[in-house]
Amino acid sequence: MDKRQIMVLNQGGQRLRWVDALKGIAILTVVLGHVLLGYAENNAFPEPAHSIIYGIKLWIYTWHMPLFFVISGFTFTSAYLSSETGVISIQEKRLKNQLLNLILIFLIFQISLCVLKMIFSSFVDNPMSFKEMVFNIFIPNTIMWYIWVLVVFYLAFSYLCRTIKIIDNRRFTIVFIILLLIGIFEKITATVLNYRLCIGNLLHCAAFFWLGIYFSRIGIERNKRYNFIVVSSLIIVIVYALVFAIRYPISSNENIIYVLFGEINALAIIIILIGIFNRVKINDTLLTKIGEKSLCIYLLHTYFVTALKVMFIRIGLCTTNRALLIVLITWFIPSLVSFGIAILSDKILLLKIIFNPITLFNKVGIKYQRKSF
């Protein structure tokens, strides 16, 4: 990675296309993960389709959100941190605007999601009462938890970066190991309370957000050791997939072996993807455009995934022979529709305000620009 390019994301309108491409992969796997989760939790398909869907879901869930938070840490650093003579400083005004934007986005979509769960309680997997709705507005354990955690990370890591001031390899490694061990411990000792308070998501993803900050601040030096790490990571992913294909029926999030190897698998996949994408020249493609609109897709896809899942289950189309087709349709259509609405949000003022509420606080005539997340 050219270090001169690292800090230009979202500055002067310039973007790093390889980062957008990674965001595209991340959001597509998030949608797929939610599709597989919905069918697995409902035991929608008979065996062996159910076991295959459950196994792939477990594998995706080891790395898709860690990847998202590495990218989020990278873009957070590129957009809101600056460095003079090696000392980190925070672009306070930009950061405060984005925090307000994220909080408004969270309130809009979290409330709408909770209200719909109440109205269509007979169609959703986790019906919601009014009391639960109020609770989830402040501490979410539903699909919008990512935005809530992102706000906390923006606050916590901006403070941490101010405290550390200079991020070097030694400081980074110490903080990363501490955060990673905390995340592993939380997953092994996961409790209902942690789930309800969203503590699990906070602790598990913190190490990966910090890893993204490191990549953005320090960069990736291409040398023999770097190539060795990438190749070793590929071997780890292959071995994990082969073992997991045999072991997944008895695996669980509380199993210490599953947790430890899941974290190693996540780090390996992240290293491989970053190693590949920052090496090749990436121009504007469908994948990069999807990455640009990843926030909108994240906010919208669950509505369409849920609708299709309920329809396919209730009309009896979930058979072993149709499993692949049903999963692909439930993945493709929500992704396509959400992406289409995201494209329209650049042209329709109401959609701009919904997906970027900070627009309401901008002066009329200021060029609209969506922040990366």
Can you give a write-up of this model?
By secondary structure, the protein is an all-alpha fold. The protein is 71% helix and 2% strand. It has helices at residues 3-6, 17-41, 49-61, 64-80, 92-119, 130-138, 145-164, 169-188, 192-196, 199-218, 224-247, 256-277, 286-292, 294-314, 323-344, 349-355; strands at residues 81-84, 87-90. A two-stranded antiparallel sheet has the order 1-2. A hairpin with a 2-residue loop joins strand 1 (81-84) and strand 2 (87-90). Helix 2 (17-41) packs parallel to helix 14 (294-314) and helix 11 packs across helix 12 (256-277). The protein is globular, with a radius of gyration of 21 Å.
Radius of gyration: 21 Å
Order of helices and strands: HHHHEEHHHHHHHHHHHH
Strand content: under 5%
Form type: globular
Helix content: over 70%
Number of strands: 2
Strand order of the largest sheet: 1-2
Number of helices: 16
Mean pLDDT across every amino acid position: 81
The rounded distance between the terminal residues' Cα atoms is 21 Å
* Low-pLDDT regions: 1-13, 363-373
Structural class: mainly alpha
Sheet having the most strands? 2 strands, antiparallel
